[in-house]
Amino acid sequence: MARTLITSLLLLACTWPLPVQAGELRVVSQTAGxxxxxxxxxxxxxxxxxxxxxxAPEFCAVAKAAAAYPQISTGDSEAILRYRPTLVLFADYSRxxxxxxxxxxxxxxxxxxxxxxxxxxxxNLRALGRALGHEDRAExxxxxxxxxxxxxxxxxxxxxxxxxxxxxxxxxxxxxxxxFQDLCDHAGAENLAGTLGGITGIAPEPTEKMLAWPVDVxxxxxxxxxxxxxAPLRDLLPYKYIPAVQExxxxxxxxxxxxxxxxxxxxxxxxxxxxxHPEVKW
Length: 282
Known about the structure:
Elements: H1 2-15, E1 27-29, H2 32-41, E2 47-49, H3 63-66, H4 77-81, E3 87-91, H5 96-104, E4 108-112, H6 118-132, H7 135-156, E5 162-166, E6 172-174, H8 179-186, E7 189-191, H9 192-195, E8 202-204, H10 207-210, E9 217-221, H11 226-230, H12 243-246, E10 250-253, H13 255-258, H14 265-276
Parallel strand pairs: 1-2, 1-3, 3-4, 5-7, 5-9, 9-10
Antiparallel strand pairs: 6-8
Helix pairs in contact: 6-7, 7-14
């Protein structure tokens, strides 16, 4: 009986979470965007767990690197708190009740709620850098981003903006004040949903109006060929009557870059600019 009790206590001790040491920083990231920010700035030992989307390349631009870390399994507070975090990273699209539950447990949280522009990204990097004690890394990354941005802007100086739409089978378009608009602003493109459609944010397609839009190129996300990506659109209104779609004039960007909320969006700028402007000496 005594031996059984001792064995049970030893097993319990082996599975019980170790206490967090004073000054130890353990960060759990709840979104793919915060995964990307965290892996860019943190020491590996500071990363307690990443989001459940971290290793999905269609959502996370650093999916390969993320595979080295644990992932939270579900969207509840228990899945987060089991990693004994001292800091949890959320976004404003994270569930409010989940954030409240984590806060009530006494854990510090950071909520990223601005990410439409690179200025927002820089602010997020600085905020996370301060929390991690790595302000220097944040500033170094920001400086590198600014160099790439300046180089791209110089390459695109004087080009005629290519008229585009963010086509999809979901019946929606991305207008002004979206990450797609930001992508267009830095890749030498005019987002017709914003300029002709008057759309702000993400909204239903104005099907009849779109038939008159002078679309040069459709921009889609995924890892397919142009033909594979356009195939589902060719029999849908309004795309069945839009020449760019029917003639195969499209750019395909990785999903994680088309909707990026982090510094990795610069790679999206560069890829889209190269595809839209072959006349530039790259």
